[in-house]
């Protein structure tokens, strides 16, 4: 049985870059992931994070998604508080979201890129995670866009990140969704 089958297809997923293997180890062992406030997507209250492993991973694990984790909450702190072994880091006093995670879950099969892709964050749905064969299958470009927009809106309102009057009921321009998720070039 597929481990993802019990998760609703409409669950909101934030695909997030994991630049170093150490960051994935922190997520796995300590149960958190960090997002710099200055480059965070506009809505961070999602259901799951999918971890896109960057170029510093071993060759057979780079530029792909192999794991996801449920998001259980978040708080604002500093990099120095998160990484106490790096008190003199140039960004030590900058603000970061500490994303509290459930256990990491290995996908039944990795989702690789066809070519290297520069990605920071973008939104997708669990349905796309379940069916994607390549990274390019994850962005929402079609009839699912209204579902994704409603989910983003509901999550933002529930977490009180925005007020209802600030968010339209219907989906908006695809460029706005890209800005909300800071999506890279995927095609």
Which key terms come to mind for this protein?
disordered C terminus, 30% strand, 187 residues, Archaeosine Trna-guanine Transglycosylase, Chain: A, domain 4, alpha+beta, 6 strands
Set out the fold topology.
Layout: E1 12-18, H1 21-30, E2 32-36, E3 48-53, E4 64-78, H2 79-82, E5 95-112, E6 121-125, H3 126-131, H4 145-158, H5 174-181
Parallel strand pairs: 1-3
Antiparallel strand pairs: 1-6, 2-5, 3-4, 4-5
Helix content: 10-25%
Task: Quickly count the domains.
Answer: 1
Q: How much beta, percentage-wise? A: 25-35%
Low-confidence stretches: 182-187
Q: Give the name of the CATH superfamily.
A: Hypothetical protein
Number of helices: 5
- Supply the helix-strand structural class: alpha+beta
Sheet of most strands: 6 strands, mixed
Which CATH class is shown?
Mainly Beta
Q: Give the N-terminus to C-terminus distance in angstroms.
A: 32 Å
In order across it, which strands form the biggest sheet? 2-5-4-3-1-6
């Amino acid at each position: 049985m597929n481990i993802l089958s019990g998760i609703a297809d409409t669950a909101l997923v934030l695909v997030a870059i994991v630049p170093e293997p150490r960051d994935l180890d922190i997520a796995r062992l300590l149960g958190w992931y960090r997002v710099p406030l200055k480059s965070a997507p506009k809505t961070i209250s999602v259901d799951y994070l999918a971890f896109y492993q960057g170029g510093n991973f071993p060759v057979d694990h780079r530029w792909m998604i192999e794991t996801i984790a449920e998001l259980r909450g978040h708080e604002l702190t500093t990099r120095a508080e998160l990484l106490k072994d790096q008190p003199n880091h140039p960004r030590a006093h900058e603000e970061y979201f500490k994303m509290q995670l459930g256990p990491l879950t290995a996908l039944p099969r990795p989702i690789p890129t066809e070519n290297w892709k520069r990605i920071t964050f973008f939104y997708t749905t669990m349905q796309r995670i379940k069916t994607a064969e390549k990274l390019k299958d994850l962005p929402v470009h079609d009839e699912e866009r209204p579902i994704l927009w409603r989910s983003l809106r509901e999550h933002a309102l529930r977490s009180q990140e925005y007020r209802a009057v600030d968010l339209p009921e219907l989906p908006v321009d695809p460029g706005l969704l890209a800005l909300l998720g800071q999506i890279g070039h995927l095609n």
